[in-house]
Specification:
The protein is of the alpha/beta class and 217 residues long. Helices cover 27% and strands 25% of the residues. The chain has helices at residues 43-50, 60-76, 93-99, 138-147, 165-169, 185-195; strands at residues 13-18, 23-27, 33-34, 82-86, 104-108, 123-129, 149-158, 181-182, 197-203, 206-211. It holds the Pfam family Methyltransf_23.
């Protein structure tokens, strides 16, 4: 059976790992590890799983977790900036943290804040924390977001990274049935080159991509 990489659309992919729930494959070009679509949850199943999460906008632990992305991003933002919290979930605490420093935030989430008009505007920065591992078409989604980012702006992503196939096999991150795409350092280097972006790892799992010029269509 052949698969196409959902990030770079490359056809050459290899078997990577299999457990009792699903199989995983890796792209030969961008190194993305992904779950074939036959193992994806339905939209109803996915929403039901997200509804089980207990993140709260008043949760100090959740604030500390998101601050690992928010604090280095705030150091990058000069003056009042307009941003998009993409995939913010039902408790958009990251947007609140950034707004507390004076920045203006728009919210988008496929299930909880499905205001698609926010995806038609341009922004000085875009944040997506613990989001891209859930995307069934990360290539299309990230390219679309990149077009909405102004030149000089930062896209801040937060996701756990693939280290090796041995560690992947016992990794808690793959136990979440809504996690279907797994990025690595190599994948982000490919993505930065593809977008013409400046790449910076603010934390092991916090990745900044700065837009240096208008990306050709």
């Amino acid at each position: 059976m052949s698969f196409q990489c959902p990030l770079c659309r490359h056809a050459a992919v290899q078997f990577y790992h299999k457990n009792k729930y699903r199989s995983y494959h890796q792209c030969d070009r961008c190194a993305l590890v992904f779950v074939p679509s036959e193992f994806h949850l339905t939209a109803e199943e996915e929403r039901a799983y997200y509804d089980l999460h207990e993140n709260s906008i008043e949760d100090d632990g959740y604030r500390r977790f998101l601050s690992r992305c928010a604090l280095p991003l705030l150091n990058e933002l000069k003056g009042v900036q307009e941003g998009l919290d993409f995939g913010c979930g039902p408790a958009p605490l990251l947007a609140r943290i950034l707004a507390e420093s004076g920045h203006k935030l728009a919210l988008y989430d496929h299930y909880y804040f499905p205001a698609k008009e926010t995806l038609d505007k341009d922004y000085d920065f875009i944040v997506a924390t613990e989001v891209i591992e859930h995307l069934s078409r990360p290539g299309l989604e990230l390219e679309s977001l990149w077009r909405r980012l102004r030149v000089g702006g930062v896209m801040a992503l937060m996701t756990k990274l693939v280290i090796s196939v041995e560690r992947f096999a016992c990794w808690h991150y793959i136990r979440d049935p809504t996690h279907i795409c797994f990025f690595s350092v190599e994948t982000f280097h490919w993505l930065a080159q593809s977008l013409g972006a400046e790449l910076y790892f603010a934390q092991d799992d916090v990745i900044f991509l700065r837009k240096l010029c208008v990306h050709p269509e």
